[in-house]
Design goal:
Elements lengths: L1 H10 L1 H27 L21 H25 L6 H11 L5 H9 L2 H13 L14
Length: about 140
């Protein structure tokens, strides 16, 4: 058995090195970026059933399109990185949630409320917010412990 593993390692040493390097980079990037991104969520984001909108923030349609496109690209990158981090080291679930908060898709608001209603997830997000001296998220009809 050990011989099989040794042969596999010798044959795929370069690929395993790249996978290990990417894993380390994703782990460090998630540790550095997720707390910052969690602190950017407005405190009352989950207070109201209607979705937050960027339409009033950016009046010019080209700027609004550019900002929303970048937000969606970053969101999908975080989402897929979070899925990978479920297997590799990193904050997989929190990274997936951060990605979902950024992307636009039908039924997004309902999915956000379903995720944030999980007390473990809410506690984790509020713990990260507290580390950055941010108020806990306010949630409509959910316990905010």
């Amino acid at each position: 058995m050990i011989e099989i593993i040794t042969v596999f390692y010798e044959e795929h040493q370069f690929a395993l090195g790249i996978i290990g390097g990417v894993s380390a980079i994703m782990f460090i990037a998630s540790i550095l970026s997720v707390p910052f991104l969690v602190s950017l969520i407005p405190t009352d984001y989950f207070q109201y059933p209607d979705a937050y909108s960027l339409h009033h923030t950016f009046k010019h349609p080209v700027i609004r399109f550019f900002i929303i496109s970048i937000k969606n690209i970053v969101g999908w990158l975080l989402f897929f990185a979070g899925i990978i981090m479920l297997i590799l080291p990193g904050q997989g679930v929190v990274t997936i949630i951060m990605g979902l908060l950024l992307v636009n898709f039908p039924g997004k608001r309902k999915a956000e409320f379903k995720l944030i209603s999980n007390q473990r997830i809410l506690r984790s997000i509020n713990w990260l917010r507290a580390k950055r001296n941010k108020e806990p998220l306010l949630t409509a009809g959910l316990s905010n412990e």
